[in-house]
Amino acid sequence: MTTPVFCTIVPPHVLDRLAQAGDPVLARPARRTLQRDAYERTQRRLTTVVGARAVAPLAAAEPGKPHRTVYDARNGTDLPGRKVRGEGDEPGKDATVNRAYAGLGATFELFLKAYGRDSIDGHGLPLDATVHYDREYNNAFWNGEQMVFGDGDGEIFLDFTIPIDVIGHELAHGVTQYTANLTYFGQPGALNESVSDVFGALIKQYTLGQTADEADWLIGAGLLAPRVTGKALRSMKAPGTAYDDDVLGKDPQPATMDDYVNTGRDNGGVHINSGIPNHAFYLAATELGGHAWERAGQVWYDVLTGGELQQDASFSDFATLTVTAARARYGEGEELDAVNKAWEQVGVRTL
Known about the structure:
With 351 residues, the chain is α+β, with helices and mostly antiparallel strands. 42% of the residues lie in helices and 9% in strands. Its EC number is 3.4.24.-. Residues 69-177 form the Peptidase M4 domain.
């Protein structure tokens, strides 16, 4: 059994800020989104078993092959909605449906090709996504069973299927759910968010064929509307610089432990302090060069799935396990040096 967790890509503190905007065109969608998120979060807490999915992998699904289904909520909130595209169906006229389908496939492919993992549970779990959720819904989420995407309000956020790393990020919460099941609060919660950012970024880089040096290391690039002064939701390369906007405020993510944020909001700052392990991964990946999913990504995947990572792990616990994993897989080489150096640079001690 796993703990019911409701994970969103846009943090509550961003929506809180928007909800207080003087312009009702900006405030109204943010308030509606916060209300909807609160409802969905409560539903997750009332769910007894999330890890054991109600629907078993279909007998027709071949091992090592994705089984994707995209549904359309038609701006309602009943899940999953009306089926609009199944596995192997040709693309339709709805670009949002097509992007969701492609993003599910890209996520499946990275985990299979790079790490030998058959879907997010490792056993061919069907991948379901619902698009066009609610009206002016400013978020995307993983609810323990499926992906859900809003269309955005068009003023601050655009369609949430546009950035492929958003799709990958939310599905990676599913991988964490089926493996380490990190507690969604404080440092383990920030690690939960960081792991999703890491694999979201890797899915984007894998799809684009980018090396670590070629990648932008942004999470959610293309999601912010033209009126927003910003590039993305988060930056792994330079946490705290993704946006600086008169309505959204300034990106609050720290890059090192010197600026760690102690807060009771956002489940103890899970979307804020995730900048620290995010930056450590960026530093390790760029130090090693080449494709980030190959060596740095392999080390992070080994830790997530190795069975030693505890649900209440601290940053130091996670860092120590990455050092152990790097040594176990690559020996006393540049991989180990890069991982050690990365954590040292962000101020996280290894035990």
